[in-house]
Design goal:
Distance between the termini: 62 Å
Radius of gyration: 25 Å
Number of helices: 16
Helix content: 55-70%
Strand order of the largest sheet: 1-2-4-3
């Protein structure tokens, strides 16, 4: 009993230490929100007092909500561990199949178990998601959903998760059972192929189930984007506008695709009114620092959009995407290797109240990946966050070399203001949470001479 006792309380102790550390960082950032009353000098003239105060209010509301949400999840997680949640759900899953021919099937029981887990997770997240959407986001002018849209979205998302996760789970269990001593190698190959397949089909067939994608109309903006792609030898296939404004007023842009079939996607909230897109109408003025910015109102002008895309294309040109893919797959291989070593260890199962003689694969995956790997995941997550910040600086530098330094600065400011991003962050909070450097850090790096 001693090893199981150590594992159980070790996991619980680490979970609470990490949770309290997160709370400490959140409270540090809360103090920054409360005590910062002046607009940073660098943003004078490009960030007005009204927007600054709105961003401050939005930040405080999200901070408060984050504290409550994290406490809720931590209490639920602790209760699940202490009440032997895995055992209870596994037994319930077996009970559901007791009158069927699948009563002795680990695969079918595992699928029911996963369905129960997903259902409970969805039900518990619903009030949190609804409050965030209809109270926090609504209050600050970002929510564009009505209740009907919200419910349909959640149902579609839930069904999609089951359609994808259940067959993958069944296949993974089969590989573990029939893969022999080195099953983790075959499981890793399966995971790599599956992830690449999902990355390929998601933008084309799954994402359109949630949002409307339309080709960017012919015009000056489209021509400029195509010229930019040609200049950096980006194999652009199509440019889309996604109608994200039906969901939220937040804005974004990204690209996807493999080999010579890459697409660029712009959120409609990133752009000016559709008439401005087609007719290329923009109004430019200079701020106190001599930077060219667009007149007050949401959305970017053409040059700012090109600068932001130059940053995104920098990630591609500098092989950041490939680098991330390699790191993630190496990390997955390491985790599966350790799983192969530990998954049949009775002590781990007993530590979480699972005393059956058989060791279901899905229970082993849940215990090892969610709890045993928790310290490792924390370290890796922080390392990846730190790396990501450095790569963002590199992508900014790439856009600057393309001649988009000033539009990139004004575009970042515009994006920041439109999304009510607060310009000041606690250093520890930012280092732990932010995969992108703070706005002021990016502006300083861009403004430096080569």
């Amino acid at each position: 009993m001693i090893p199981e006792f150590c594992v159980f309380y070790g996991v619980l102790t680490f979970s609470w230490i990490e949770f309290l550390w997160e709370q400490y960082l959140t409270l540090r950032q809360r103090r920054v929100y409360k005590t910062t009353d002046k607009i940073p000098e660098r943003l004078t003239g490009v960030l007005d007092v009204e927007t600054f105060n709105k961003a401050k209010s939005y930040g405080i509301d999200k901070n408060t909500f984050s504290i409550v949400e994290e406490w809720f999840h931590m209490i639920i997680s602790t209760g699940f561990i202490c009440l032997n949640g895995f055992t209870l759900l596994w037994n319930f899953s077996k009970y559901c199949l007791i009158e069927t021919r699948y009563s002795d099937s680990e695969i079918m029981t595992s699928c029911v178990f996963l369905l129960c887990m997903n259902t409970l997770g969805t039900l518990m997240s619903l009030p949190i998601s609804a409050y965030s959407t209809f109270i926090i986001e609504e209050k600050h002018g970002f929510n564009k959903q009505n209740l009907n849209f919200f419910v349909k979205d959640k149902i579609k998302n839930f069904l999609l998760v089951q359609v994808i996760s259940l067959p993958i789970t069944a296949a993974a269990i089969t590989i573990v059972k029939w893969g022999g001593r080195y099953f983790f190698i075959w499981l890793w190959v399966f995971a790599v192929v599956t992830s690449l397949f999902i990355m390929t089909v998601y933008p084309e067939f799954i994402a359109p189930l949630f949002d409307k994608y339309t080709p960017l109309p012919d015009g000056v903006l489209k021509t400029k984007i195509e010229e930019l792609a040609k200049h950096v030898k980006f194999p652009l296939y199509k440019i889309y506008i996604v109608e994200g404004s039906k969901r939220s007023a937040h804005s974004n842009a990204y690209f996807y695709g493999f080999f010579n079939n890459k697409r660029i996607v712009l959120y409609d909230t990133l752009l000016k009114d559709s008439k401005d897109i087609i007719n290329n109408k923009t109004v430019i003025e200079e701020n106190a620092h001599g930077d060219k910015i667009e007149e007050k109102g949401k959305g970017m002008n053409d040059e700012e959009i090109l600068a932001v895309l130059g940053h995104e294309l920098g990630h591609w040109k500098l092989n950041h995407i490939l680098f991330y893919l390699i790191i993630s797959q190496v990390n997955l291989f390491v985790m599966l290797f350790v799983f192969g070593w530990l998954y049949d260890n009775s002590m781990l199962y007993r530590a979480f109240g699972f005393y059956e003689s058989t060791h279901p694969v899905i229970i082993g995956l849940a215990i090892i990946f969610q709890y045993v790997f928790s310290p490792y995941n924390t370290v890796i997550s922080f390392a990846m966050t730190t790396l990501s910040r450095q790569l963002e600086f590199q992508a900014d530098a790439f856009a600057k070399k393309l001649g988009h330094a000033k539009p990139l600065e004004s575009g970042l400011i515009r994006l920041h203001n439109d999304n009510l991003g607060f310009p000041v962050y606690d250093s520890l909070f930012s280092a732990w949470h932010h995969t992108h450097p703070q706005l002021l850090e990016r502006l300083e790096a861009i403004s430096k001479t080569d």
